Amino acid sequence: MAPVTVRIVDVSYVSLPAEAALPPGDLKLNAMEVQWLVLPLLQHLLFFEGDQLPPFDTVVQSLRCSLSATLSYYAPLAGKLVHLADTGDVAIRCSASDDGVRFVVAESEADVRRLAGDEEHDVQTFERLVPELDMTELPAPLLAVQATRLEGAGVALGVTVHHAVADGRSLWRFVEAWAAACRGDTSPVPPPCFDRSRVRLPGGEELARTVLRESAPNLPVVTTPSFVQEDRLRFIRWTFTLDAQHIERLKQRVVHLGEAQEGAPSCRRPSSFVVAVALAWTCFVRCRSIPADKDVFLSFLADVRDRLDPPAGAEYFGACLSGCVAALPARELHGERALAAAASAVQGAIRAMMEDPVRGWDLHRIVRSVPMERFVNVSGSSSFRAYEAADFGWGRPTRTVPVRMNHDGQVALVRARDGDGVQVSVSMLRRAHMDTFKSMFLQLLG
């Protein structure tokens, strides 16, 4: 798929408003967060079209004004990530003199209906529709946005945020606040909390410094792994949507298969997240030539804000994630009971996390412990109401998609546009694997 031209029309900065609530000092990142320095980009695209969409210039002006208003409460996002050489920490630094948030305006002959409607992602075009941020050396910016005029009277809104300061829940919380300001919603909402002391890990600040010394030893220079840079644009990426009926059928099938297998581990009625990732994991294993006796692995991230002791609170803005790992012999995902086996293993990983929420905080250790060719990693969540959150006053997006998918076998989830289903995006390096994955996906749905 040949990429189309995207022309930059204007680059400016949205500065902090005078009434912005500035933090009292540097906000030192904790160990959960600093490990994301080497994989810093969290990027999403939102496509808009339809009769409710105002003229492009009006859209841009509305986005700029509402972003400024939103930064009153999200001031740290207009700051920089800095290296504190005296202590070895990395921190968010924000002041009224900062440039603000980079705001890019662009235009392209790409047709919004194709970009938003095709199940296969136009990867190279998507990358041009999100703003670039140089995060290879500190100080580094935390946030940038890009609005692009598309053919077919459409708009693409790209958001790039540094993953060390925001996870998916934080990203969509910010988008929701920005969208509410844009559509003039004055309903009071709890402000975000950037207080890093809310996340307490054994080892405290020294643990974060240890992680930095191991993962980013050349600070202030940050080196992203070469495989991310080299393979990213070669991936084939596809988006599937499981509607409410699909989800319900999968849940019933998992329960039925679990009850029918005497002596097998029990699988209680699963959540939408569990059946979505069980389906993706099963399809991944079946599209590869993996020996039956070899273990296959699935990893996903759990939001542990409310599971810490004491809880960090739902309003905590940061990367507050713990890794969960499920493992099974490959043969288990080829039999008739594959979906139930996969769902049971995922539920077991969730139970283990609930018993010890911080056990999986070291994501690098998890990745190092599993063979990448037999590994599926899941990002996002079926609980992320991205479409509902991103109503800027001209209706829900036609499509929202993740732009950065770094792994051959990555799965990204959000709640589907209808509000009941699950949107599943998949990344693979080989088209033959993706073709088989699609075939297995549709077959298991049937």
TrEMBL record:
GO terms for molecular function: acyltransferase activity, transferring groups other than amino-acyl groups. It comes from Panicum virgatum. The keyword Acyltransferase applies. This is Anthocyanin 5-aromatic acyltransferase. Keywords: Acyltransferase, Transferase. InterPro entries: CAT-like_dom_sf (IPR023213), Plant_metabolite_acyltrans (IPR051504). PANTHER family: PTHR31625.
